[in-house]
Here is the input.
Amino acid sequence: MSDDLRPLWDFDDLDATERLFEVRLESEPDEGVRAEILTQLARVAGLRGDFDTGERLLREAEALAAASPRARMRVELERGRLRRSSGNSAAALPFFVKAYEQAIAQDEHFIAADAAHMAALAAEHEDRHRWTERGIEVAESGTEEARYWLGPLLNNLGWDLYETNEYEQALSAFERALAHREETPEDGQAVAIARYAAAKAKQALNRHDEAASQLRLAIEWTVAEGQPDGWFHEALAESSATLGRDDEARDNARIALSLLPEADPSFAGDASRIGRLRKLAEA
Here is the structure.
């Protein structure tokens, strides 16, 4: 079943998203659909950090959801998201698991893949891979709409593997994610981020020429869109330095130094990272 609520989301403008859902709620006569809309309003509240309002909206949704399996699984999913957003991943996980099980039973592939994705984020490390693989399986074998989740799931799998120094496997996941993202080139930001991830794995494998090529393409998009990204420039500075392209390394290090203090809260406290970029910027 298609998800006609998904197009109403704009994660960069929660106020506009909230207004669209409220307008839809006012005109919707079906109780089950009204319950689904309320779950999305609860998600908006959770993203704002207003967890009490989110829970109140979910209780309202629950009261309307008795005859709608889809609304009930959305209640479980969004209740889990509220718990995780409030910092309690352990409490969130059972809700994601229940949402996943309900969605699988109803062949709701998009919601099942979403729930598996969230379960992976909430699970302990040893279970993350299992939930990610479940989500990938659902996304690959389910509806075309469910294929959306391949990008986030493969990206998460890649970073999990990267963090355990399994760079070849990480690169495989990142390249699969990139191939999927390139199926929808209009989402240029997602494609650029996928290029960056693949480039990071290639850097770890000492394939700096290939990494630099991917990073230049990612940066090309950010320049065209007026959305500079300090992480992209930082990574290209490293590969360029390794390849002996000192001018390119210097230019990108300087750009990274100008962008990262505002973009990355951890940057200011990372003396070794700052020192490395300054060294490249002065080379």
